[in-house]
UniProtKB/TrEMBL annotation:
Source organism: Brevibacillus laterosporus
Claim: Magnesium is one of the keywords in the record: no
Similarity comment: family membership: Belongs to the RecX family.
GO biological process: regulation of DNA repair
Protein name per its UniProtKB record: Regulatory protein RecX
Gene symbol of the encoding locus: recX
Length: 220
């Protein structure tokens, strides 16, 4: 494929409306996105040397990675790590992926602290769980430990306690018959699996015993 010469023809791709096909010396040489086409004035008659060719292709690759990142972010908020992994999965280099994450962060499209805050809010609203599980989820999303502690630190103990109480009430409401020791154990294990601390689960258990259960049970 030619890397230098004179642009002899420019064609707009029939299926990809913002992609232009460039011929050098009557031979197809490369394609670029519309933004790169305009930026570098790739009109018929323009002379292209190997350095200019490399610069244009590098700019086009960066533009494609940027557009891919913006499109990925348009569906829902993402963490920086999610965007970087997505771009690498699209066969962009890790260096370019990192660069696009930095660019998206600078432009306000990416904000890991805001992402973590919204993630926790949505989880507590739609899929209630304890801070331990939330911490693990945010860690899997690549959120920095300092940001995780900052975001989860805003959840008051009483708020987390209310979430656990609500989950337990919902489970109990679907049970038929008395709450025996075996059933109680399963209910409390359910809360532990949801990421609530052992001490918090004990407190919820004690409250429920006072309200609903008369038999003395062994400590959890």
């Amino acid at each position: 494929m030619k890397t230098s010469g004179v642009i002899t023809a420019v064609h707009r791709d029939s299926k990809r409306k913002k992609v232009y096909l460039i011929d050098l010396d009557n031979e197809f040489a490369f394609e670029v996105h519309e933004e790169v086409f305009i930026k570098y004035h790739l009109m018929k008659g323009t002379e292209v040397d190997s350095n200019f060719y490399a610069e244009v292709l590098r700019a086009d690759q960066e533009n494609r990675a940027y557009l891919a990142a913006i499109n990925y972010l348009s569906y829902r908020p993402r963490s920086s790590m999610e965007v970087e992994r997505y771009l690498v999965g699209k066969e962009f280099s890790s260096e370019l992926a990192e660069s696009m994450v930095e660019k998206c962060t600078q432009e306000g499209y990416l904000n890991d602290e805001l992402f973590a805050k919204k993630w926790v809010e949505e989880r507590l609203r739609l899929k209630p769980r304890g801070t331990y599980m939330l911490k693990m989820e945010l860690k899997q999303k690549g959120i920095a430990p300092s940001l995780i502690e900052k975001v989860l630190g805003r959840i008051a103990y009483e708020q987390e306690l209310d979430v656990a109480r609500s989950l337990l009430r919902g489970k109990v409401a679907r049970k038929t018959g008395p709450i025996d020791q075996k059933t109680e154990h399963k209910l409390l294990q359910f809360l532990l699996r949801k990421g609530f601390s052992h001490s918090l689960v004990q407190q919820v258990r004690n409250e429920w015993r006072l309200e609903n259960w008369t038999e003395e049970e062994e400590e959890l």
